[in-house]
């Protein structure tokens, strides 16, 4: 192949018969030959001409290198300037933004002192009315800070939806809870900080507890319903234990595929241990003390080591039982077994993934049993105080189902008043852990002539209920500076949802402290007031087991009303002894 190359400044042609681009090498034996016929130059003239071309090429190459070096230097200077300038510009922008936002007011709140902030403005002892007074005085959103730690209290459901749901990407974090971390609750969905682990854990739980999937658990709840009614018939004085056994048995079978075989079952003992942990930990502190502990991340507990051991043993015991069942081929379908089998199929049996199933199952078991049991006890309490509502619910059951027929899930739409009773229980119960310390009354039962088939009277002396009721659920934490309706909410603020105030707000609910199921019926039969959805929380932290809890609560309440009258015990003079309530705030969600 013949190739010609022309150099602009020389006008000389070079010939390469091997096609090696004019490069001479021993391998290709390429030669550069002058073509005298074309140029008319002698060998000496050609040599001189080539020398001049070589000099010219060297000049251009050196000049190009110099320009290249200059470009490198300029590029380096530009890069250095960018490296130095961009952070400065960003810092100036952030500073300007914060200064601009700093000019915006915080949400309203009581007067604060330097350094201490609102510490001395908060009550020294427990006071369940402090949140309501703040809401009544300062409105739907209140700002406090203690020792420099900002706290925002949300008293309006609309504001909670605007921030915790519509802006959930920055309002779904949790503040630090060192005590709960130490006792072993820190890795549960409730207390996990917002991020990758939280999102994966939430998806794991929610995928198994959708409203549609909860239908497959109804047979389990109906089977345990029969045991609950039989136990109440046999020993009504132990109604609290029977209610606990019902919810633990349901959650246990759904979570681990295990059935409670006796009243000494290890899972029942664990449930009782969890109750003691919640009762002993400082959930009912004064708002002042709780604010200081959260601000300084101080751990205060006299039973931390024992609680930690109890929680850890329960986590390990639950998953080990399922793993043994899987190994022996005797595992029943459950949240835990299905999750472990899926990991095995996908070959993702990492310690992290197994641990996520272990902790999620533990939370379903511990928290699910606690909250549903609490609501059932509140139902008993409400029926004792409001016999007219109890009778109205029973009349609806008679009219729809007939005497002696137990309600099933397909009857829910036909029993609207009964469903409203349950929603009213949740509204006034929200969100709570109900305690019955010092139940010093005696329960009696007997058969009474009535239109009720085999009617068993539960004469309940409920005594002193100690109600560990959370005004707020578990606080959120905002991850970025934010502005809401012209008010500045600083990054890192603890966000408290005052759920109790939302569900007893006089602007939303008429006569809010009266037990009135009719409030949820549509007009003209009722008041058309909104359902208490806030009881389950907001946004990405909403309770993932709410559909399961609602179905279990409905079937137990409806069945008890179909079979029993619920009445208080009487004193020696035949006067009803009504129960009393004592309220304390606690973290339950």
TrEMBL record:
Keywords: Heme, Iron, Membrane, Metal-binding, Monooxygenase, Oxidoreductase, Transmembrane, Transmembrane helix
Chain positions recorded as heme binding sites: 543
Pfam families: p450
A cellular component term, taken from the record's GO annotations: membrane
Residues forming coiled coils: none
Localization per record: Membrane
Pathway field: Secondary metabolite biosynthesis
Record-level Gene Ontology MF annotations: heme binding; iron ion binding; monooxygenase activity; oxidoreductase activity, acting on paired donors, with incorporation or reduction of molecular oxygen
Cofactors named for this entry: heme
Ranges annotated as spanning the membrane: 70-94
InterPro entries cross-referenced by the UniProt entry: Cyt_P450, Cyt_P450_CS, Cyt_P450_E_grp-I, Cyt_P450_sf, Cytochrome_P450_fung
Bilayer disposition of the protein: Single-pass membrane protein
Protein family according to the UniProt entry: Belongs to the cytochrome P450 family.
Protein name: Cytochrome P450
UniProt organism field: Meripilus lineatus
Taxonomic lineage: Eukaryota, Fungi, Dikarya, Basidiomycota, Agaricomycotina
């Amino acid at each position: 192949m013949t190739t010609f190359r022309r150099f602009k400044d020389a006008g000389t042609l070079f010939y390469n018969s091997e096609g090696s681009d004019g490069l001479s090498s021993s391998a290709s034996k390429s030669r550069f030959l002058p073509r005298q016929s074309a140029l008319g130059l002698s060998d000496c003239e050609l040599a001189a001409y080539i020398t001049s071309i070589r000099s010219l090429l060297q000049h251009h190459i050196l000049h190009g290198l110099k320009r290249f070096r200059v470009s490198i230097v300029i590029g380096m200077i530009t890069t250095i300037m960018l490296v130095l300038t961009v952070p400065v510009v960003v810092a100036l922008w952030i500073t300007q933004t914060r200064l601009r936002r700093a000019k915006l007011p915080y949400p309203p709140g009581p007067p604060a002192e330097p350094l201490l902030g609102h510490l001395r403005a908060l009550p020294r002892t427990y006071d369940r009315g402090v949140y309501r007074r703040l809401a009544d005085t300062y409105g739907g959103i209140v700002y406090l800070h203690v020792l420099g730690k900002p706290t925002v209290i949300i008293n309006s459901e609309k504001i909670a939806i605007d921030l915790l749901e519509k802006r959930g990407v920055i309002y779904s974090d949790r503040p630090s809870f060192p005590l709960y971390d130490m006792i072993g609750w820190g890795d549960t969905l409730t207390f996990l900080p917002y991020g990758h682990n939280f999102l994966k854990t939430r998806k794991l739980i929610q995928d198994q507890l959708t409203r549609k999937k909860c239908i497959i658990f109804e047979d389990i709840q109906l089977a345990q319903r029969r045991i609950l009614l039989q136990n109440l018939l046999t020993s009504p004085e132990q109604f609290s234990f029977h209610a606990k056994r019902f919810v633990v048995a349901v959650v246990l079978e759904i979570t681990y595929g295990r059935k409670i075989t006796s009243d000494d079952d290890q899972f029942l003992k664990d449930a009782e241990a969890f109750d003691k942990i919640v009762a002993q930990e400082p959930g009912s502190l004064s708002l002042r003390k709780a604010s200081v502990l959260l601000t300084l991340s101080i751990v205060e507990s006299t039973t931390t080591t024992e609680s930690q051991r109890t929680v850890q043993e329960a986590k390990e015991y639950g998953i080990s039982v399922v793993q043994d069942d899987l190994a022996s081929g005797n595992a029943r379908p459950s949240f835990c077994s299905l999750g472990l089998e899926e990991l095995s199929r996908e070959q993702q049996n990492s310690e992290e993934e197994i641990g996520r199933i272990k902790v999620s199952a533990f939370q379903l078991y511990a928290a699910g049993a606690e909250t549903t049991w609490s609501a059932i006890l509140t139902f008993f309490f409400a029926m004792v105080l409001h016999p007219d509502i109890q009778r109205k619910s029973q009349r609806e059951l008679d009219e729809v189902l007939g005497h002696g027929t137990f309600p099933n899930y397909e009857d829910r739409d036909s029993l609207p008043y009964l469903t409203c009773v349950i929603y009213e229980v949740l509204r006034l119960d929200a969100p709570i852990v109900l305690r019955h310390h010092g139940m010093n009354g005696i329960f009696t039962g007997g058969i009474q002539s009535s239109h009720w088939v085999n009617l068993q009277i539960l004469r309940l002396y409920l005594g002193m209920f100690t109600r560990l009721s959370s005004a707020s659920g578990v606080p959120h934490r905002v991850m970025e500076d934010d502005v809401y309706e012209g008010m500045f909410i600083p990054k890192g603020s603890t966000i408290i949802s005052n759920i109790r105030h939302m569900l007893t707000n006089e602007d939303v609910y008429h006569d809010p402290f009266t037990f009135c199921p009719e409030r949820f019926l549509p007009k003209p039969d009722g008041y058309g007031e909104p359902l208490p959805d806030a009881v389950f929380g907001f946004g990405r932290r909403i309770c993932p087991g709410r559909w399961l809890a609602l179905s279990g609560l409905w079937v137990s309440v409806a069945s008890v009303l179909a079979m029993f009258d619920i009445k208080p015990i009487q004193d020696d003079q035949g006067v009803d002894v009504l129960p009393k309530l004592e309220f304390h705030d606690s973290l339950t969600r």
